[in-house]
Write a structure and sequence with these properties.
Blueprint (H helix, E strand, L loop, with lengths): L1 E5 L1 H7 L15 E2 L3 E23 L7 H5 L9 E26 L9 E3 L5 E4 L29 H5 L3 H24 L9 H23 L1 E13 L5 E10 L3 E3 L7 E9 L8 H8 L5 E16 L2 E20 L8 E6 L6 E8 L2
Antiparallel strand pairs: 1-14, 2-3, 3-4, 3-7, 5-6, 6-13, 8-9, 8-10, 10-11, 11-12, 13-14
Length: 358
Amino acid sequence: MKKTMISLLLCCSGLTTSWAQTALFDYKPGVTAEGAVYFLPKTAIRVSVLVEKSTYIPGDFSNYAMRYLRMKDVSLESSITYRVVAVKQEPIAIPDTTKAYAVKFNAKTVAANLALSDDGRLLAINAQPKQQVLPQPFEAAPKQKSENPRQFMSEDILAAGSTAKMAELTAREIYDLRENKNLLIKGQADFMPNDGAQMKLMLERLDQQDKALTLLFSGVTERDTTETIMTVIPDGDINKQVLFRLSQKRGLVDADDLSGEPYYVSVENLKTVPTVNQEMAAKKKKQPESGIYVNVAGRMRSTISKEKQVLSVKDLPAAQFGNVELLSAELFNKHYTTRLWLNPITGAVDQLEAEQPK
């Protein structure tokens, strides 16, 4: 059995450059015994924005942070702030309803096994299709259980008659903990550990108490990160279009809400695919051709920015910035067993195999 492997470059260069768009907007995509209606894809940009929410709660002794621990700029007011921590971009496919085509099966062809996606995009012929793999949703790291500082307070601290006195005694306890830690490290403590494991355990315990009690002065900041997904569908170049706005006090807001700082998206057609001669294409349209229409994808550069700061820039495939080519029906006649795989993102030929019986 003779097998011929045809690469994407050969397919793109060896086929005719004309194509005829079929007016099928009143039809739904699908496969029947008589034929099929399918879409080619358009490439959209899936933008993932990770926003961190920080909630600050003052400590019971925040008023005394400077006096006893020399901690500067400790706020006495609760606050909530938001910031963007990451922006990611990935290409995804959506059906291009301007590229709808019909295939009518007949006895001379073997292109009867068309695999379509749920939204009608052609994925494969006579083969198991390749599926579009979407990024995994963001999962926040589990929060560590915070210690209750009061469980580390001595009897004298808890019995103090005023907040000021409690703060003073707590500060002394913190300094004692730090001194004990230094003595352990220097090997000068009254009770030295027997081995390294016990030493590590004792130091960790001292650190735990120190951090818990210090939070009474510095306050506590809790952080939560959430993911927001946005979709950009470019039909041409985009020059600094507002993608979203971020308010430091309210988080993500609508693009027209001026209370938030704007974040922009720009998309540039990299023009990697030659433009079709429309005059020649119009002449060839008069003579309908049979076969399978596929995309020859171009490329685009997508940039997410804030003012003059670039947060993410990525070169992506772009089906809408390329051309459509025809795979002749002769490839699917009964003289060959032809299998076709299309790229699920772009609709371009990933692989074409034609087997000719002996």
